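not sure who needs this but someone in the group chat was asking about TNase-like domain-containing protein from Catellatospora bangladeshensis so here u go. i didnt clean anything up, its just raw.
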Amino acid sequence: MAGVRRTARRRELRATAFWLVVLLLAAAGWLWWTLRPQTDQRSTGRPPTGAQEVRVGFPLDGDSLQVSVAAPGPVIDTAGDAQLRLLGIDAPELHGADGGPQCWAESARTELQRLAPPGGRLWVLPDAERRDSYQRYLVYAWTADGRFVNGELAARGAVRELAIRPNLTHQADIGAAVAAARTARRGLWGSCEGP
């Protein structure tokens, strides 16, 4: 009888220890979640520190823009007109393989124009690589009120994710926004076959 009580007592102690460990891990996870640094730049209320201001000319498609730069700065090293390619995203092509627009290409350009209207201002920051093979400046862009343009386009379902190393600074946020849009079937995710 005493052996049965000892065995039951050991089981009880093991179960108690197990649940204490689970509780401690849950508390540690909650603390990490609530105290982690915020990296989501979609709605900060202002552009990030160190970003260079540009004036929007017009969107070339859903992920690139023609802009004008008043003076050389930390991102764009010349004054005058420049082309920007938004990092971390890929919009359907206006001139696809068959010469016509891919599904959602015009809508993606319209979404970009809503966020960055001609004559409007954007603030841009680079990542590890400054230019692509077409000599476009590779940037992340923010509106005057701090909305992260790359992330907003992803959240609206206007673009797909395009992660190209080493330019991955905001990829976690962009990837999460694309996943949420896809799950909700927003934009191209609810309108195009096989995106």
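also The chain has five helices and seven strands. if thats useful
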